[in-house]
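Re: the 353-residue chain
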Amino acid sequence: MKLRLITIVALALFLTFGSVSSGLYAADSISAYMGFSREVNEALADRIQKELGIEVKNITLSWGEIWARLVTEAPRFNADMVLSFGAAQAIDGTKKGYYVPYKSPAWDDIDAAFKSPDGSYYALGTFSFLLIGNKVKLAEKGYGMPMSWKDLLDPKWKGQIVAPSPRTSGTAFMINYSFLQLYGEKEGWKFLKALDQNMAQYTKSGNAPTDLVGRGEFLLGITADENVLKRINDGYPIQWVIPAEGIGYEGNYCTILKGTEKLDLAKKVMDYLGSKDASEFLASMGYIPPRPGIPSALYGAAKPTFIKLDHDWAVKNRSKIIKTWKSKFMMKETAKAQEVGNQKEAEEAKKKQ
């Protein structure tokens, strides 16, 4: 009788919840450090759960914050994956042995530029920065949008431009090394020094200038492109341009962190990220996706004018660039950017001891 009761209870549980492989249990979840904007992180996590039945417990951080965590936590990471950080973090982490190489078959027919040869990291398409302005505030002043980066040096923009800090933002690091390569190091630093004369502040986040300009707190912003489309659709009076010289670009890289106990789930997520559905989703958010022939909702089908960049040079010179920037421009960082930047530097220094 007792055995029969146990069997009935077991059958009832099975019929109610299904087998372990078909239901969403705690085991069917991963945690991920995610460097997209919060809105994109949440939307991507929802998409993965819808398509795979895998919950992504996402922790939204800037690229700089993600890297600081990896350096501090290694070799016992508190996440299973990273979904979106920059080339510098992807390459440096591979050298340090932070990632699990996985040659996903879903990425086989995607251009080699979007993946590392050994499968340590993959790029979820192209990410960039834009020059944005507040249409209402510009009209009140009788100003048009600058069409060249050097137009930003006009004294009329003094105190009216906002951009992120490279000490805390991967977007900002890309912005700075783009200008250093566009004009050459010597002239690039001269340009950044002249631009600083008109800068109001440097923010912690690469997306913060989008909201600050959208709310009319500043006329112009140099900002990550990822929230621009959403804010325009939300009704913010934002206009954007690609200046004549072009814009820099990066990849939103993803990796599987070494030591994960959920390797099979992480591989399934990586496979999905190489799918057409994932590229269509990313394109709908404004990114230029890894799969060709899928137009970006922000840029359209035509590729933007990009500044010719040597990302390997940027990775090798990352510490030098950030140290030089800090010595010249840190005084205009927001309080939050200074706090996070100082904390990050302290953690990196402690790890080296």
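The chain has two domains: 24-126+251-284, 127-249+307-352.
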